[in-house]
Design a protein that fits this description.
binds calcium ion; EF_Hand_1_Ca_BS; Ca2+-binding protein, EF-hand superfamily; 0% strand
């Protein structure tokens, strides 16, 4: 069972992914998200990211009960099982990392991270508070390993104190 914290955390991302706001994730939402990502200027691999994101759609679809979309409860059931899918989760983290590494230097800068937040949420959001917490060694960048840790914590973890719980930004009520 998903905890209240997981519900809050994943619920925020669910609302960002539910592009048309009807309370269900559908293939159309995924296509809209993929479109949003392919519009990120200068990015080397948005098509690859779109393919990986679209690849999660059958996984979610399989968890839903034959209706037209996937509800938050159904997403939470999938999230419950992600502990068994750690390779797929960290693979998605790597593709996301490469997509937001706009200058291709193998690191995520503060401004590149801001692009992630804005593109994911469809609107700009402050990153001044969370970025230093995500930057575990304080060198001013996120490495691939740092990002993978946070991404996996977000999707497969349940720790309100872990920086990764806020990798998509602050949690809203
Ligand atoms: Ca929707
Ligand atoms: Ca970079
Ligand atoms: Ca760092």
């Amino acid at each position: 069972m998903a905890s209240e914290f997981q519900r809050k955390k994943v619920g925020g991302v669910f609302r960002a992914m539910d592009v048309d706001g009807d309370g269900l994730l559908t293939q159309a939402d995924f296509q809209a998200l993929a479109h949003r990502w392919t519009a990120v200027a200068g990015s080397a691999g948005p098509e690859r990211l779109a393919a990986v994101m679209t690849g999660w759609w059958p996984v979610l679809r399989a968890a839903s009960r034959g209706d037209d979309g996937v509800s938050l409860d159904e997403v939470l059931r999938v999230v419950d099982g992600l502990g068994d899918l750690t390779d797929a989760v960290s693979g998605t983290a790597d593709v996301m990392f490469e997509t937001i590494d706009l200058d291709g230097d193998g690191l995520i800068s503060r401004s590149e991270y801001a692009v992630l937040i804005e593109t994911w949420n469809g609107a700009p959001a402050g990153t001044d508070e969370i970025f230093p917490r995500l930057d575990l060694d304080g060198d001013g960048h996120l490495t691939r390993d740092e990002f993978r840790v946070h991404w996996t914590e977000f999707w497969a973890g349940d720790d309100p104190d872990a920086p990764g719980s806020y990798v998509f930004g602050a949690l809203m009520d």
